[in-house]
Amino acid sequence: MAEKRKVKGLMERLRDGETVICAEGYLFVFERRGYLTAGSFVPEVVLEHPELVRQQYEEFVHAGSDVVLAFTYYAHREKMALIGREDDLERINKHALRMAREVADQTGTLMAGNISNTNIFVDTVPDYREKIRQIFKEQLEWIVEAGADYIVAETFDTFGEALIATRACKEFAKDLPCVVTLTCHQGPLTLDGVEYAEAFKQLAEAGADVVGLNCARGPATMLPVLEEAGKLFNKVPLAALPVMYRTTKEQPNFISSIDPISGEPLFPVNLDCIQCNRKDIHDFGKRVQELGIKYVGLCCGNSAHLTRSLAESLGRKPPASRYSADLNKHWLLGHDDKLPLLGQESKTKYATKLAKVEK
């Protein structure tokens, strides 16, 4: 076990006006890499290739994340039963948590436990509220046992399930701060009809230390919702963790996104053509600073280079910034005196075409 470093806590950082970056998006990372099945989206990779999960933890920290988020999203009882691996429930949670704690201790970062939407917050499931509470209870008890610094409870498209999660955090992990984030799909209301500012207010009253939005919407369509809610609510810090896709007013979430060429739905495995680029994320980082949003991160579609862009937009230089682009040394775009003559001649030849690139 790595020696645990003393690090500044989540709430202390936020009270001091610091911005906290939490890199997320593990499901899509491992689906893209061929270690996780789209559809069920269960993080079996934690058990089957733990070395890759540990590496991803480290990679996100290298890119600028202040937090190692344990990869237990969708590692809950309902999802594990779906793929016939309910007997591995405790093992997958404890393994993901232990690795996250070890990497956090090695790197001097925070470690967060994770609970999430259960997909059974529906009237057709008998005793669904109590079943959800028990799902959260067992995961939260493992999170506490693993020594997490705080809890992320996320991706709730109903206020009701988010409230169950918040209350469970306060009951079963009462000494840990909790970040509770909703998911905004189409309109100004949660799927069970609560305005976001009101939902944030009630979640804070129930004990949430940070509230906000994650998943579903990209930066362009998430931030306006938070900006409006922020005008009516300022009890606790706000969180913004969008997906890394270019959602629009017409297609406000990535589930509704359509291929601009074929007209076919893109979610969940063909979203590449609307992927956010580094400038999109740099602009997102600047905008959250203007809005005073202090808990930020990147959700589905995230990768290390985008997390680095977010960190750099906040004026930081994480270890990965050593390898940030230096186009001054590019053979065609650069001006470095050491560049070969061929590059300089080519640049002169293509000067007109390159003018816009250089701007």
Q: Can you describe what's shown?
A:
The protein has 2 domains: 10-325, TIM Barrel (Alpha-Beta Barrel), CATH 3.20.20; 327-359, no CATH class. It is of the alpha/beta class and 359 residues long. It has helices at residues 10-15, 26-32, 45-48, 50-63, 77-82, 89-107, 128-145, 159-172, 196-205, 219-232, 278-291, 304-313, 341-349, 351-358, and strands at residues 20-23, 67-69, 110-116, 150-156, 178-182, 210-214, 238-241, 295-298. Strands 1-8-7-6-5-4-3-2 form an 8-stranded parallel sheet. The model has no long low-confidence stretch (mean pLDDT 94). Pathway: Amino-acid biosynthesis; L-methionine biosynthesis via de novo pathway. Pfam families: S-methyl_trans. This is Hcy-binding domain-containing protein. Keywords: Metal-binding, Methyltransferase, Transferase, Zinc.
Which helices and strands appear, and what pairs or packs with what?
Elements: H1 10-15, E1 20-23, H2 26-32, H3 45-48, H4 50-63, E2 67-69, H5 77-82, H6 89-107, E3 110-116, H7 128-145, E4 150-156, H8 159-172, E5 178-182, H9 196-205, E6 210-214, H10 219-232, E7 238-241, H11 278-291, E8 295-298, H12 304-313, H13 341-349, H14 351-358
Parallel strand pairs: 1-8, 2-3, 3-4, 4-5, 5-6, 6-7, 7-8
Helix pairs in contact: 4-6, 4-12, 7-8, 9-10, 10-11, 11-12
Protein name: Hcy-binding domain-containing protein
Pathway: Amino-acid biosynthesis; L-methionine biosynthesis via de novo pathway
GO molecular function: methyltransferase activity; zinc ion binding
